[in-house]
Amino acid sequence: MPSDKQKAVDTSIEEAQKNASKRRAKGEFVRGVSGFRSVLGQDADFPAEANRYHLIVALNCPWCHRVSLARNILGLETSISMDVVFPNRTNDDDPAGPNLWEFNPQRLATLTGATLPECTQDTATGQNFRLVKQIYAAEGSNEGSVPILYDKKTQRIVTNESAEIIRMLNQQAGVLGSVLSADQRPNLYPEDEVNQTLRDDIDKLNAQIYTDINNGAYKAGFSSNQNIYATAFENYFATLADLEAALAVDNRPFLTGDGFTEADLRLFPTLYRHDPVYYLRMKLNGAKILDYPHLWRWLCRVYALPGVAASNSLTHCRQGYFGRSWNNVIPLGPTQPMTYPDAYEHPNLAR
Description:
mainly alpha; Glutaredoxin; Glutathione S-transferase Yfyf (Class Pi), Chain A, domain 2; 4-stranded mixed sheet; 5% strand; disordered N terminus
């Protein structure tokens, strides 16, 4: 693979790292670059096979939500196994150190006072690791992020870049053991010649959504510079307005037309979190998605697709985002016009 200095940055996948340390010192949140980038089905070490691969995710993480959503939408729930870490990372008093993703199904969530049934042990590596960082350490890496696409046969990480995982799952869905036939499952990124214009539309949307919405939410919420926050805030809501206007032109059901594509999949995790979490936690209180009637109906439409509701948990999202705030107190709302995610079953709530 060429180094980051040798290749052009794909702004639909990752953030440019130029002067990253200086930018962070000035208070900007700068997302790092994933280090494992093998291609499933193209790399000889990782052929596409059913029941061989495994996902490691945190349900509060929107980048992980992409891959769990793709797994469900593409009918891969039974052929690609999955482990779920606890939504809060280790504390300062952990012997391994703070801020590490851990497999801990016995840990109590402060929001519910109970364990979270979705959380699992490490079932992929055969080592019953407690920490995600140990999976990386076994490969000589200092990384510690999720999601991970893991090869259970060779006990190696395939990739930890979410955008590339969803593309691979789509390309290889049939060989990977999808329970859906080719005509039943969506083709998130059609690669035949006749769909070049559609791919161009998806690529353009992906770049805008990643920069201003997916990563933009983190620029707003985790940057410590007022001007950087303000720019991210403005770009986030300007892009929401653009998407609202595009959907309104012809009442199209999805971002590129009649079919659900990769662009819809990549937008959904952020908008799913906006009203109940990001409005407060990421300081994105300019408006709620409920205030954009076409986007709200789009959000409800996607939520109603088979497998989408089961792909994530707002309990994990609330616990993960607010449980790492300074006082660990988690807001209980919003409750008007109704609680979330129940609200996503009511497209008529939009003004």
